Amino acid sequence: MRHPLPASVQGEQDADGAPHAGDDAAVVPTFSVCIVVRDRAELLVDAVRSVLANHHRDFELVVVDDGSVVPVTRVLAEAGVSADRRVRVLSLPPSGIARARNVALRAATGRYITVLDSDDELSADALGRLHDLLTATGGGWVYVDYHEVRGDASRRIRLPEYASARTMLLGVLTRPRLPFKHSGTTIDRRVLEQIGGYDESFRLFEDVELMLRALRAGVHPRHLPHPVVRFRRHDGNITRGRLGGLVFWFRLIDMYRPSRAPGVALGIKALRTLSETGKWLVSLGR
Questions:
Q1: What is the CA radius of gyration of the chain?
Q2: Which pLDDT score is estimated for 7?
C-alpha cells in the first residue's frame, strides 16, 4: 500500500510524529537525513556521528527505532550524541522497513529527504556536495557513488548515468547490481508528495519499488559521481532470502516492465533469476 505524504510538518514532534501543542513554527532545514534501525547499536552510532560531522550544517536527523531490543534513545544517550537538538528519535514496535521509512518521511520537515541506512556513513562533505548539485541543476532526485568496505579493504563503486528515466528503469530491472544505492539518495519532498511514500506491501525491495515508481512517473534522477556514502558490507546486510525475494522481483517486473509485448516480462524474469541465483551461490561461500 502506498502512503501519501503530507506537506512539511512544522514544530517539534512527539514520537508519534505529532507536533507539540503551542510550539511556534520551526525553521525548516534544507535536509532531513532519515535513518531506520533495528538492533544495530554500534553501527548506528557511527552513522549518526557521520551525519553530525557534516560541514553543511542546515539539517535535521530523524531516527526511527523499528522495535530494537535495546532502545535507540538509550544507545544514543550512552554514546553522547542525543543532546544535539537536530537529532530526533521516533520509536515503534516492530513494524517493518517500509512502514518505518514512511514514519520517518512523515516526521521529516526538511526540503530534501536524504536516506541513510543504519550501517552506512556519510562523508563530511556529503550534504554540501548534494546541496551544490541540487542548486546547480534544479533536480528533484539524486543518487550517489559510494565506497564499499569489507574489513580493511575498500573500493569505490561508480554507478552508471542514464540518458532518460525510461532507460534507467530498464537498468534497474535487468542489471545484476542495482544502478543506484538507496543510502545517500536525496529526494525533493515535493516529488515524494506527488508519487507517495514507500509501498508497505513490500517487505523486501521497497526502495527499488519507490525508484521504479518515480521513473515510471518520468522522474529522471541526477547522479552525483562522488562517493559520499561509506557502505560497510557484512553478513547482516546480505539478503539471505534472495531466492524467496524473487517473488517480489517478479511482482516488480510485472508492475514496471517497459513494454507489454509478449515475452518481455518472461525475459526480464529469466535475467533476474540468473542474477539472484548467482548472488545466492556467492553468499553461501561466505
A1: 19
A2: 45
